[in-house]
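Posted in: Structural Biology > Protein-Ligand Complexes

Title: Requesting predicted complex, zinc ion in pocket

I'd be grateful if someone could produce the 3D structure tokens for the following input. Sequence and ligand are given below.
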Amino acid sequence: MPRRKTKNRTGLQRIEGVPFHDAWIAFVCLKCSELNLINVGTQLLDPQTAFQTASWPCRKCGYKHCRSTDLPFPNWPREFTEHTSVRAERFWLGFFRIATEHPESYWKQCNTCGRILPFHAFSKHSGWGPLQRQMECRSCKGAINAVLNPRRTKQQLHEASVRRRIADMLLEGENRDISPEDLFVRFGGRCFKTKKPLNINDRKSWAIDHILPSKYLYPLTVENAALLSAEANNNKRDRWPSEFYTNNELIELSKITGADLTLLASRSPVVNPNIDVNACVSRFLKVRERSNLPKRLRELKELLEEYSLVGRLSPHNKRMLGFD
Ligand SMILES: [Zn+2]
Ligand SMILES: [Zn+2]
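-- Reply #1 --
Done. Output follows.
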């Protein structure tokens, strides 16, 4: 299967040829205040060497930033500006340190908006170039994530977390242990969404996707587990599979796991039709939790009503929960 282009996933075209692992030096011209940027590739400079050997001309006025140049400040006395003076030497030492001392001193180019920006404009990405930062700046990242991850309101997030918590309590004991080794074999060691190879020993880098979400009362089982990178799983969250996976991915997923394709492909979420509601309620009431019982019962009743499960309660449970 051909890999999908990045463009399709994020909706943003990358600028070709941007050396996004490279570090840039940024300095403000002492004479004319122009911001100057120099690409230094993937090797960071040593401040002492830069002080000894560098000669950085300003692109606007040509003034050479170099320890053998006099300082161009008209109001400073000669004994401060003459390059042979100790004061000027110390000035140059500090000047080159500021620009080269730490990875944080450097700038880099965003391959999405093309701007060259300070270190802190990029989020961390281990192992990427000497600065270990991502290839797009945080503003572009914001735009990209907004597409993948539509913003939910605080209220929606709260309701979703209540729902998930209750659903998890109802499912207690039905979830199966998933063997990471078997999961990696089934999915060829790759994130099912991005196809990125994953390292089984780096537990933070991958996650088990609950394909049919627990929110709709599906327990975690072998048929209901997919291997995703942590990032992809964070985008999926508790969305219904057809809201996250493409049609081809749904077909492949059903082949790998043996899950019911009709269910996976359903346009809207379907509450687990096989769930034993009464067993769930018994389990729910057995869970020892310090939170107050009336509130928990109210939340449970709301969920049962919203999922149209009241009709499947035993007469005893119906009465107990006050549905009569
Ligand atoms: Zn200048
Ligand atoms: Zn950008």
